Amino acid sequence: MLLRTKQDFQNSFKEFCVNTANREITKKSLQKWCQKNKVKMQHVDSFMDKHDLNHDHVIEYSEFVQFYVSTEIKENFARYDANNDQMITKQELRDGLLKAGHEEDMLDFEMNRILEKMDVNHDGQISYAEFADYFVKSNYSFDK
Ligand SMILES: [Ca+2]
Ligand SMILES: [Ca+2]
Ligand SMILES: [Ca+2]
């Protein structure tokens, strides 16, 4: 499936949503969609499996987008996560910013700015989930 622009994501998400008010795709809404479009029901489970990243049985918009841009997110994350433990520490962030060509005397300012936005649980590190969430929100957020 070729889904690229923000508008495309929003439109196809809405289509699966059925009950668009809650902005979640549930098994039920998928089944309705299948009925309407005469698609075989057995696709519902595999669709849920693939997209429901935190396994809470609903597909949120961020999960929906993440599925399609996960390669992009992983590549960006790996650029900073030098030891590949799925966490970006302050040191890794600093090294990554230096490599990306940021001025040395602006590094602390940049780091704090990034941590403020991405480090949702304030543990001083950026987890993959925090990074992916921010990436989706800043690039593909849902217009109201
Ligand atoms: Ca979910
Ligand atoms: Ca790391
Ligand atoms: Ca964190």
Which percent band covers the strand fraction?
5-15%
- The end-to-end span amounts to 25 Å
Shape estimate:
elongated
**What would you call the structural class?**
mainly alpha
What level of helicity do the residues show? 55-70%
Low-confidence stretches: none
- Please name the CATH topology of the largest domain: Recoverin, domain 1
How would you describe the overall organization of this protein?
The protein folds into 2 domains: 6-68, EF-hand (Recoverin, domain 1), CATH 1.10.238.10; 70-140, EF-hand (Recoverin, domain 1, Orthogonal Bundle), CATH 1.10.238.10. Helix content is 61%, strand content 7%. It is built from 7 helices and 4 strands; from the N terminus they run H-E-H-H-E-H-E-H-H-E-H. It has helices at residues 6-17, 27-37, 42-51, 61-80, 90-99, 107-118, 128-140, and strands at 24-26, 58-60, 87-88, 126-127. Strands 1-2 form a two-stranded antiparallel ribbon. The protein has a two-stranded antiparallel sheet with strand order 3-4. It has 144 residues and is mainly alpha-helical. It binds calcium ion (CA) (3 copies). One calcium ion binds next to strand 3.
List the helices and strands and how they pair.
Layout: H1 6-17, E1 24-26, H2 27-37, H3 42-51, E2 58-60, H4 61-80, E3 87-88, H5 90-99, H6 107-118, E4 126-127, H7 128-140
Antiparallel strand pairs: 1-2, 3-4
The structure holds calcium ion (3 copies).
